[in-house]
Amino acid sequence: MTAGSLGSQGFAYQAIGAATLLALFVASLFVGVGELAIGSLASDPEALRLIMISRLPRTLAALLAGSALAIAGLVMQTLARNRFVEPSTAGTAQSAALGILVVTLVWPDASLGWKAAGAAVTALAGTSVFLMLAHRLPPTQPFLVPLFGLVYGGVIGAAAIFAAWHLDLLQYLEVWMTGEFSGILRGRYELLWVAGALVVLAWWTADRLTMLSLGRDVSIGLGLNYAAMLRLGLVIVSAITALTVVVVGTIPFVGLVAPNIVSRFAGENLRHTLPWVAGGGAALVLACDIMGRLIRFPYEVPVGTILGVVGAVLFLALLLGRNSND
Amino acid sequence: MIEIAGVSLALGGSRILDNVSLTVPKGGVTALVGPNGAGKSSLLSLIARLRPLQSGRITVDGLPVDTTPSRQLARIMAILRQDPGVASRLRVAELVGFGRFPHNRGRLTAKDREIIAASLEQFDLSDLALRFIDTLSGGQRQRALVAMTFCQGTDYILLDEPLNNLDMFHARNLMRTLRRIADEHGKTVLIVLHDINHAASYADRIVAMKDGAVIASGETGDIIRPDILESIFGFSMRVENIAGRLTVLHHA
């Protein structure tokens, strides 16, 4: 009766999706400057070392960051009740960068974990203010919310740049503002598992998130603790954004493109679509990271740059094709 | 029984409800009528705990709406506000299925599926069950929302102008369905209506509001009278008994 029970067809799609993700995962393990052939794994201990220290962490980081960012976008769209906002454009990522800057300033030796915690706090504050203001905008003008988000994110981003410039920390800021995986090694990405755990948490609350998207009155009428659910959503968005900004930097468009593509084909009953959104985000980031490694081989183009282009094209295609469904 | 005692509401400095007291007995259809801005929707929102109570007291089946856990209330009372602006891309069957959430917390049982299928059938939605709600017409979407409200299976059903967007066939179908569940299952329906003739035909009781106060309340036959209708709506209209039904000729 629902999308999840369309029978063999649904199963076929799931199989194709899983196979695609697996293929990208394997490809990501074997694409890079260091020579690595699949056959050498068994005989060559150096090859195994390369995989375990560099390639596998990098691939897992892309997988975790991609799925988590897609879910952060999805949850943020649910909170704002607007399909065109995401953390990297509406001030969450910028607030997180500002937070890391502050932590770096007052406590230069802080570990990655503490930086992430500081970033999460400012991201939470920045996103709360965004949502508070966005809820006041007239619902009859759906494009006002993302436009306001761009301005809001721009202002916070500019404040971060201004502060960094004054403190001579611009090159640090650059690292957090541009997402890339080339620096990921074992021991440098594990925080992202926390983001992965937040994806699982989002899935666990999928029904309640869907109800949130039905609006305040309907969800209260159905007995949902609306305010508590809003707060949980805010925490998920802020923590995921902070963790990814600290570990890999800002990766744009994933949170916009993955949920919108899935919504187009499968709707927004998150219990069924949330795994697709997470998988789609992971596949998108993995594919773009592999592309970044190949385009100027042996040099690398940061994944944030690749996604800036690919994501923008995909998003425009989505916008233009919006009225041709069903 | 819904008991409202001394309820006042002020929003942004203006008084929306002024010391309203009202008892809606258990069972039957009660219509809430009155001109625009009378405070009908606000009163409904307060009963359904969609708005915090500023003063006074409201209980449903003896449960105070401001302190009873929302989940518990959702099992005895369902509310459909006018134009809740549901924009999610859910399929009709999925949306209607969320009506069961207060009972099953998201895990559909065989009985839930039966109730969902019956609600879809009841509101002529079976053929649209797999359509996304953002592809429906306004009237079809309204029926889907009504079906979700029914699916909640509560003893108390609060509806705010549910006939909006509905064509004659589906408006009549909804009113007859309300009448039937009230008669056969003892449900209590509190419904805001603008068409006074729908109230005259289907309601057991009518509560009339004006300027934030209840100005008349009683059996339908006692309210559908020219003098009382004029005091509510501000113009005189004839009331005729046509084929055994009280009919208000308000178009003249």
UniProtKB/TrEMBL annotation, chain A:
Keywords: Cell membrane, Membrane, Transmembrane, Transmembrane helix, Transport. It is found in: Cell membrane. InterPro entries: ABC_BtuC-like, ABC_transptr_permease_BtuC. GO terms for molecular function: transmembrane transporter activity. SUPFAM superfamilies: ABC transporter involved in vitamin B12 uptake, BtuC. It is a multi-pass membrane protein. One of its GO terms (biological process) is siderophore-iron import into cell. Coiled coil: none annotated. The chain crosses the membrane at residues 12-38, 59-80, 92-110, 117-137, 143-167, 188-206, 232-262, 274-295, 301-320. One of its GO terms (cellular component) is plasma membrane. Its main location: membrane. Belongs to the binding-protein-dependent transport system permease family. FecCD subfamily. This is Iron complex transport system permease protein. It comes from Mesorhizobium muleiense.
Automatic annotation (TrEMBL), chain B:
It comes from Mesorhizobium muleiense. One of its GO terms (molecular function) is ATP binding. One of its GO terms (biological process) is iron ion transport. InterPro entries: AAA+_ATPase, ABC_transporter-like_ATP-bd, ABC_transporter-like_CS, P-loop_NTPase, Siderophore_ABC-ATPase. Residues 2-236 form the ABC transporter domain. SMART domains: AAA. Belongs to the ABC transporter superfamily. One of its GO terms (cellular component) is plasma membrane. It is found in: Cell membrane. It is a peripheral membrane protein. It comes from the Bacteria. Pfam families: ABC_tran (PF00005). Keywords: ATP-binding, Cell membrane, Ion transport, Iron, Iron transport, Membrane, Nucleotide-binding, Transport. This is Iron complex transport system ATP-binding protein.
